[in-house]
Design a protein that fits this description.
The chain is mainly α. The chain contains 17 helices and two strands.
Length: 481
């Protein structure tokens, strides 16, 4: 039957239904249901579009997932090994902040100072040896310009995990996200996929990289669809789920199967949380918009060239000095967020961390470091929620502080990433808790995301993309060297 036409099966009548669309590729069963209405009336059951979900594509999705899981294990092995050598921290779990806090002043500062020197020199040499090469998955996906470089991407990922292990205040997820996208690039080139199929595969690999190192397969798939692709229809979400799920399963060879933030209580809903969420949303929305602007400005004006070899050690020294009093500032902020989710910390400590963590992360990025923003932003939202929640309990007691922290984390992630669904799923999967807090989490996250979008519209990912160049037609996402 021709596309766009259907026939009424009523006796003696045969007329076209103008709203019907043909699915490409066609389903196995050709005969329609007795109603005669087309299968394509359901909006999310659309055709594959340019990125055909062919058998070859699905095989490459599986290969990308396995490669991403193994690369995620490699990145975490590097990170945990460096943390253990530098601070005696356990190779996994939530003991990094505690290990840093146990060290003396000189021992605490020395690894980070080494990290500043190493990072400054290593990134300068890498960028000098790979001029013009791309190692930003977001930019490659969204602009269609340039190509991911194998050497630059892998080098950036390894350097990033080393400096995070030494205490740099940036996220650890950027490296596996980048290498997952690189795995999709390699698989797509090898399988001779079309440009549209390659983009979909690169996005699936990027989301799977985040999923496997945090044990968040659903959150990783939603991140792929909502953030990297901007589409939640079946042709996007099916390969995203498959890739994130299999990458997470593969990463279990090294990484634990429990929640990243374990032992978080199942907090109960309280009326105070609902009212507070309505007040929190606008506050987080404004703060997220301001922070995104700061990140964007620093990304454009960040230190480059040989100056980075001087600026990075200075910036890391500033962070080391602040961390003499606040060891929670070391690393991506995982320990800080975990304490907040447990309801730990005084009003003064939570207030200080909510201001210092985003600022030192911006400082590290501004001097040329490459790393993620997901966990630093989430931890900032957690301590901000804990601080404002602790203050709120003076007016309306009864709700646990950890619940306020979880709501604050979800709102800050949603607003900063401009991805509310991903934010909610990630907080639930990261903690294996918070289901009873879903309504206030949704209220705060929707309000915060909408206000940030209304004020500006950028996210922590789009704000970091480099200066625009002359537009060029889309090109295959090939691997370059």
């Amino acid at each position: 039957m021709t596309a766009g036409r259907s026939r009424d099966r009523s006796p003696g009548r045969s007329r076209p239904v103008a709203s019907e669309r043909a699915r490409v590729p066609a389903p196995l069963l050709k005969r329609r249901l007795p109603s005669g209405r087309g299968a394509m009336l359901q909006p999310n059951v659309t055709g594959d579009g340019e990125a055909r979900l062919t058998p070859r594509f699905w095989v490459l999705v599986l290969l990308t997932a396995v490669a991403t899981g193994l690369l995620g294990d490699l990145m975490m092995l590097i990170l945990f090994s460096v943390q253990h050598l530098a601070f005696g921290a356990p190779e996994s779990g939530n003991g990094f902040t505690a290990a840093v806090a146990r060290t003396g002043a000189l021992h605490r500062m020395l690894p980070l100072l080494i990290g500043g020197v190493f990072g400054g020199v290593a990134w300068y040499l890498l960028r000098r040896l790979t001029p013009g090469r791309k190692s930003e998955i977001d930019e490659v996906l969204w602009t269609g310009e340039g190509r991911l470089s194998l050497r630059r991407s892998f080098g950036t990922a390894v350097i990033s995990e080393i400096v995070v292990g030494l205490g740099a205040s940036i996220g650890r997820e950027a490296a596996p996200k980048l290498l997952g996208g690189l795995a999709g690039n390699l698989a797509g080139e090898w399988g001779r996929l079309s440009p549209a199929q390659q983009r979909l595969l690169v996005a699936c690999g990027g989301g799977a990289g985040l999923a496997c190192v945090y044990n968040v397969p659903l959150g990783g798939a939603l991140f792929t669809a909502e953030v990297l692709l901007g589409s939640l229809n079946l042709p996007s979400i099916l390969p995203a789920l498959a890739c994130s799920g299999l990458a997470t399963l593969t990463a279990w060879l090294l990484l634990p199967q429990h929640a990243t933030y374990d032992s978080i209580p199942a907090y109960r809903l309280h009326a105070a949380l609902l009212v507070w969420a309505v007040l929190l949303g606008p506050v987080v929305g404004v703060l997220a918009a301001a922070y995104i602007r700061l990140i964007g400005w620093l990304s454009h004006h960040r230190v480059t060239g040989a100056w980075s070899m001087l600026a990075m050690p200075v910036a890391f020294a500033v962070l080391a000095g602040l961390a003499l009093k606040y060891p929670q500032l070391y690393g991506n902020g995982k320990g800080m967020a975990h304490d907040a989710f447990l309801g730990l910390g005084s009003l003064a400590l939570l207030a200080a961390l909510s201001v210092l963590k985003p600022l030192v992360t911006a400082l590290v990025l501004g001097v040329g470091a490459s790393g993620g923003l997901f966990t630093p932003v989430m931890s900032s939202g957690a301590v901000l929620g804990g601080f404002l929640g602790l203050a709120w309990t003076q007016l309306w007691p009864g709700a646990p502080i950890g619940a306020y922290a979880m709501i604050g984390a979800a709102a800050m992630i949603g607003a900063s990433m401009q991805a509310p669904l991903s934010a909610l799923a990630l907080v639930l999967e990261l903690t294996h808790s918070g289901f009873s807090l879903m309504v206030p989490m949704i209220v705060a996250t929707v309000l915060a995301t909408a206000i940030t979008r209304w004020i500006d519209g950028y996210s922590i990912y789009s704000a970091r993309i480099g200066a625009a160049r002359a537009p060029s037609p889309p090109v295959p996402l090939a691997v370059a060297d």
